[in-house]
Specification:
Blueprint lengths: L1 H21 L5 H4 L9 H7 L3 H11 L3 E4 L9 E4 L2 H10 L7 H7 L12 H15 L2 H29 L2 E3 H18 L14 H18 L2 H10 L3 H28 L11 H6 L14 H32 L1 H14 L15 H5 L2 H13 L5 E4 L5 E2 L5 E2 L5 E4 H4 L3 H4 L39 H18 E5 L20 E6 L4
Parallel strand pairs: 2-7
Antiparallel strand pairs: 1-2, 3-9, 4-7, 5-6, 8-9
Helix pairs in contact: 1-3, 8-9, 8-20, 9-14, 10-12, 11-12, 12-14, 14-17, 14-20, 15-17
The structure holds protoporphyrin IX containing FE (HEM).
Length: 511
């Protein structure tokens, strides 16, 4: 155990030293050298701390597609691309040839047989059943009312207190709690109240976060190595073992509680319709292969939903406020739009707000600012695919059956050849058409929510949750980001800030 760790650390350290010594001037071309036995891994290890920005430099310099060579016989070669034509081909026009593949399922084994991990008939049934819930009007109303309630009873009081006491808050942590509460309510009907003033430890949320980090490292290691580490409970895999234990326990508690509620005849009230209740009552004759009486099926379903909805939406919100804090003109424009389109008379200031979906849709500039955030900081920064049969991509690259392809959405949003010379600038106006409405961009160019048949099912839920929180915070508080804080990205399957986003909140009006 100690030996494996020692070898891993030594290999990384030696590569690092060699490259620092050999390269006076660090260029991504030099770092892409394909070394005997080691392939391009040493260059990648040097760049791990700035993995995402490095991927932008590299893909910009290689006409948006690179064949990354891993160490000999390690099985870690992968084709890395941010070319919209390739993305459209893989996700849409030739979708049938690009399942997630067996390797994906092994890497993301924590998710079991949930929708993210499944392919073919099982995926079709999971998607049809989930779509049927998410498109129901009562579910959409439930989404809006539960978000409003978490904002009113959790988010605003917490930020109020921080403002009163002049305490520095980590907005990333606050938004993770917000989306943990909103997503768990939708998944199970239970409100964990993680935004309460005591800021309780959120073990389930932390487990989901840890698993995301470990999964990224699994992409870069030979399967035999991480499996051995997992079996021994060593290194980052120790975190994964712990994450799985916590996730299993939490999901099982919710399943047991829901079964008990049902056996006591307690049903969700009014428009409340959570995922667990829905699946427990689903008509199985309509959906082959789904088995809601099986606890494992329900566990995989809840966990996939938590992974889908929690860290993604909170990542979007964190980067949204970070970008606005650096772009005061855009912040002023969002506020101006809110006060013009959804004015709040003085007599209503102390009353709770309530929106409907079309109120939110009318906020075109806010929508632009949210899309611009997701373009520059897509919460799911890459997507892993594996061709069933050999194929040639539109870029001319040949891919073998079962090889690995990584679509980089982070790099896609920053490609000058796709978005113009101002690709790295934050410009919500980019999303407004000449007639003043919202401008649509094709999903293979703006792929934050994926594209093709596997497009995100929760896009509308996510946009709504982000807008409700954004609107309430912008109306109630001024946000001052702490000067000089380090902004680094965690290498993970979700785009998070390594040190959080620290800010001071000031009440805008005293009611
Ligand atoms: C800003 C927030 C969000 C972003 C950026 C986002 C992005 C994505 C992406 C990129 C995928 C494809 C992932 C893959 O196939 O590996 C995906 C799939 C999915 N998302 Fe989201 N998502 C967000 C929020 C949500 C929410 C709130 C929900 C649920 C309420 C949700 C439900 C799903 C589901 C069920 C899938 C699987 C679709 C399938 O495989 O057919 N997402 N999302």
């Amino acid at each position: 155990m100690a030996l494996i760790g020692f070898l891993e650390v030594s290999a990384a350290f030696i590569s690092f030293l060699i490259f620092r010594l050999l390269l006076n001037k660090k260029t991504h071309h030099a770092l892409l050298t394909d070394w005997p036995f080691l392939g391009m891994l040493p260059g990648l290890l040097v760049e791990i701390p700035r993995l995402y920005d490095w991927s932008v430099d590299v893909l910009e310099a290689t006409a948006m597609t690179l064949l990354f060579k891993g160490p000999l016989f390690s099985g870690t070669d992968l084709l890395f691309t941010s070319d919209p034509a390739n993305i459209r081909h893989v996700l849409s026009s030739n979708f049938a040839n690009y399942p997630k593949g067996p390797e994906f399922k092994k890497i993301f084994d924590v998710l079991g047989d949930g929708i993210f991990n499944s392919d073919f008939e099982l995926w079709k049934n999971l998607r049809r059943s989930a779509h049927s819930l998410l498109s129901r009007q009562d579910f959409q109303k439930f989404t809006l009312s539960s978000s409003e309630s978490v904002v009113k009873n959790g988010l605003l009081p917490l930020l109020d207190q921080a403002a009163e006491k002049n305490i520095v808050v980590d907005l990333q942590d606050v938004f993770q709690r917000y989306t943990f509460d909103t997503t768990l309510i939708l998944a199970t009907g239970h409100d964990p109240k993680s935004l309460s003033i005591e800021m309780p430890r959120v073990e389930f949320g932390n487990a989901v976060e840890d698993a995301g980090e470990v999964v990224l490292y699994r992409h870069l290691k030979p399967i035999i190595l991480w499996k051995l580490q997992h079996w021994l409970g060593f290194g980052v895999e120790k975190k994964m073992r712990n994450a799985i234990t916590v996730a299993n326990r939490e999901c099982m508690n919710h399943i047991r509680a829901k079964r008990e509620e049902k056996s006591r005849g307690i049903h969700s009230e009014g428009e409340a319709m959570d995922l667990l209740s829905y699946y427990m009552e689903i008509d199985t004759t309509q959906y082959d292969l789904l088995n809601p009486s099986d606890d494992k099926f329900l566990r995989d379903t809840i966990l996939s939903f938590m992974v889908a909805g929690r860290d993604t939406t909170s990542s979007g919100l964190t980067w949204f406020f970070w970008l606005l804090s650096r772009n005061p003109k855009a912040m002023a424009k969002v506020r101006q739009e809110i006060s013009t389109i959804l004015p709040r008379p003085i007599s209503q200031l102390d009353k709770d707000r309530s929106f409907n979906a079309s109120d939110l849709n009318n906020l075109v500039y806010l929508h632009g600012a949210v899309c611009e955030t997701l373009r520059l900081y897509p919460p799911v920064p890459f997507q892993h695919k594996s061709p069933a049969k050999a194929d040639v991509l539109p870029s001319g690259h040949r891919v073998e059956a079962n090889s690995k392809i990584v679509l980089s959405y982070y790099a896609l949003g920053r490609m000058r050849s796709v978005w113009g010379d101002d690709a790295s600038d934050f410009k919500p106006e980019r999303w407004i058409s000449d007639s003043g409405g919202s401008r649509h961009e094709p999903s293979f160019k703006f792929a934050a929510f994926n594209a093709g048949p596997r497009t995100c099912l929760g896009k509308q839920v996510a946009l709504m949750q982000m807008k409700v929180a954004a609107l309430e915070i912008l109306e109630n508080f001024d946000i001052t980001a702490i000067e000089g804080q380090k902004v680094e990205l965690v290498p993970s399957v979700i785009l998070r800030m390594k040190h959080g986003f620290k800010a001071v909140m000031t009440k805008r009006r005293k009611t």
